[in-house]
Design a protein that fits this description.
The complex is a heterotrimer of chains A (261), B (354) and C (295). Chain A is of the alpha/beta class and 261 residues long. Chain A has one domain: Rossmann fold (3-Layer(aba) Sandwich), CATH 3.40.50. Chain A has eleven helices and ten strands. In chain A, the strands form two sheets. Chain A has a six-stranded mixed sheet, sandwiched between helices. In chain A, strands 2-1-4-5 form a four-stranded antiparallel sheet, covered by helices on one side. In chain A, strand 7 (176-180), helix 7 (188-205) and strand 8 form a beta-alpha-beta unit. In chain A, helix 3 packs parallel to helix 6 (158-171). Chain B has two domains: 33-304, ABC transporter involved in vitamin B12 uptake, BtuC; 308-353, no CATH class. Helices cover 78% and strands 1% of the residues of chain B. In chain B, strands 1-2 form a two-stranded antiparallel ribbon. In chain B, helix 3 (67-84) packs antiparallel against helix 4. Chain C has helices spanning 2-32, 39-55, 61-84, 92-114, 123-130, 142-164, 166-176, 178-183, 188-214, 223-236, 241-263, 267-281, and strands at 132-135, 138-141. Chain C has a two-stranded antiparallel ribbon. Chain C has 295 residues and is mainly α. The chains are: A alpha/beta (261), B mainly alpha (354), C mainly alpha (295). The A-C interface holds A 43, 47, 52-53, 88 and C 295.
Amino acid sequence: MKLLEAKKLTKSFGGLMAVSKVNMVINQGELVGLIGPNGAGKTTVFNLITGMYAPTSGTITLFDGSHGKTIHGLKPHKICNAGIARTFQNIRLFKDLTVLDNVRIAMHCSVKYGLLSCFLHLPRYRRDEQRIIDESIELLKIFNLDGKMDELARNLPYGEQRHLEIARALASRPKLLLLDEPAAGVNPAETAQLSEIIRKVRRLFNLTILLIEHDMSLVMKICERIYVLDFGSVIASGTPDEIKSNERVITAYLGEDAIDA
Amino acid sequence: MVKQLNKKALIKPLALLVTFFIVQLLIQFNIINYYYQDILATICINIILAVSLNLITGFTGQFSLGHAGFMSIGAYACALTIQRVPTVYGFIAGVILGAMLAAFAGLLVGLPTLRLKGDYLAIATLGLSEIIRVMFINLDSITNGAAGLYLQYRFVNWFWLFVLTVMTVVLISNFVKSSHGRACISIREDEIAAEAVGINTTKYKVMAFMIGSFFAGVAGAVYASYFYFIEPNLFGFSKSIDILVVVVLGGLGSLSGSILAAAVLALISSFLQSFAAIRMVLYAVLLILIMLFRPGGLMGSRELSVAMLVELRKEAIAWLKAMPAKVLSAVRSITKGTGKHGGDKSASKGRFEG
Amino acid sequence: MDQFIQQIINGISLGSIYALIALGYTMVYGIIKLINFAHCDVYMLGAYIGYYCMTFLHLGVVPSLLIAMILCTLLGVLIEKIAYKPLRNATRIAVLITAIGVSLFLEYGTMYFVSPQVRTFPPHIVKSMSAGIKLGNINLTFMQLMIVSVTVLLMVLLQLTVKRTRIGKAMRAVSLDVDAAELMGINVDTTISFTFALGSALAGAAGVLVGLYYNSINPLMGLLPGLKAFVAAVFGGIGIIPGAMIGGYFIGMVETFVAGYGYSMYRDAVVFAILILILIVKPAGLLGRNVREKV
């Protein structure tokens, strides 16, 4: 069953075609990898899906059962509320806020009380705030961050900041999670831990995941399907084994000479 | 547990009530005379202004230089209402009307301009408040133009000052602690990330702007009724700057800081009255010195609490203990003739060559 | 028609002044992202220095102008060294408040020393400057000629400095990227001081010219022109030198025309309304490029 479908997705910056005619389907429950050399347009695809950029042309549809809703060109917060959450390549936490606040902010769309309750701190406010705190702590426990919930995000070690960003993305209860290089700058032991966490949250939250990653061992190990992007176009897609042996992929990564040698 | 909570929840209202009655008694026995009452009124009005601007600039991170413009709307609306209905009900209606009109102006101003960032927003809001001022000067059939409006009655007394100030602080503090308030704070921290986690940044920017303007309107109404004279030039650029100074001095994102700074500045300024000629010069020097030595404001983004006072005491002791060493090293660096910056640079150079 | 041409002449004269002040704002903003509120007071002090040179030292206009420029240069550098340099790593808003503090200090310090009283320049100089050419109903005074020619001369010199000299290149480098410039061996502190020096010299010149033009100076005279000059800088695209020039002339023109056709009460409002429109349509100003934050 399809969850997200991009058709002929194109984005140009001035004369530069960052993404050109990308077709992509992500099925319910899949863990899909998006790889490609630097500058291939992977993050731009993320930015298009999450509404950070409006596509120059093409469509993006998010499915809820058989019912499809086009989401391209919507504002990022609307897309997030529609069920797509993301992390950033260069971590974008709310650095000067606490770990707990980072997660609480992302729970905003589930808040039920209105302005009046918030100004007067009515019982409805108290109940809902307590629920938010409880749920946030539950979420942080998955990442072993519940012991550090009062620390400022900027004071966490790098690996934990990556984890917190995933926790924050999950707080908005997404159907589809986009992870932008979660293993970048993380040591091998932490990478192993990361793939464990990805598996765990996928199971717990019944998630579909799209993952950009340069660490091939991680991608090959956990992804079920992979799209390869080069110069803004999809040059291959398939299972990890198919991708490993695909000549165009090897050329794109290693250059023409690699095939001859 | 529950009982403890209740006890804690009672301390604040109790403290407030006690403060109110003590000051009320002092006024009754004329220990707080008219001169001090004026200072008290100034402090209260400045608290309302600073706390409301802090919501916009300190919590939501939107740099506004036009707060006085919204204040003037409240002031004129209230003054004109009182002129027509010179009773305390007229005053109450004036406060409500002024606050609503100011909030509406905030909406009108916010929708187009809040797309701008940082200094550009500051300049746009500055421009808009100047436009409001020019409008008040030119609408002389209603506002009596540059000559200003006189009111015959004063309805604001200590009771109203106290109630409106406490109300403003409590409401804004409650807002900031809620999910809506956190949405505003997330915009200050990282607008792109805020959008990405599902926060409608435009909505919350406009909301913060409207709430801030609303209370600026309240402050204006109180001002008009207490000092019973208003003219457009009272609400010019320098008034906006004055409010911003209070907010930054107290600490962006600290409500207790704003309250503290409003009180401290009003007291400093009235103390300097006796040096009238160089009062503003001293005020300026103080401002520069505070910024040089405490660029984060008096409170940073923290709130005043008992735990903080304890920490402050520790910090002060540590600071005092480190003092002799600091003085020594300062003396040494002066006698050597090398500034701190030069030293840093040569160190970093070494790192690159090595 | 005559009135139209007359308005253009007046507009260009006023615009020249705004442009001169705007340049200082724009250069400083371009290099350290600071709205230098004290800039308008440097301009005010320029006017006072000119006044004292002419009234008490009985100097001519040109020597007074030069002295005002030199002293304002020193003052600008001094302000930067004392008040802004220690805050190089502080938040921008802290520096901004410091700038406001410096501005208040200069205004009220001046008021303390020379009294808030309005002063006028020596009559013989004013008289000689306001003589001029009359073409039908159009008046072109020496003063206006001088304002325009001094402005154009200074702008050409400024462009040459920024485009052709080593320090100009350093200025451009620092405004693009402070850290990279420092790594390339540029002395950032010197460059910033130099930028303040240039801006203050121009403000000093503008002060003397305005003082003579309107023949009235007081310690708070910098406030409104300073604000409008800053608007001019934002209008043209802040940080961009030609933008400040265009913005200055544009604001000068608009103001003169609005006032000239009987709406002088509204001229400040019109200036700000135009600014807001420009910002909404083109948020980075007329010549500015809209830089998008990279996600």
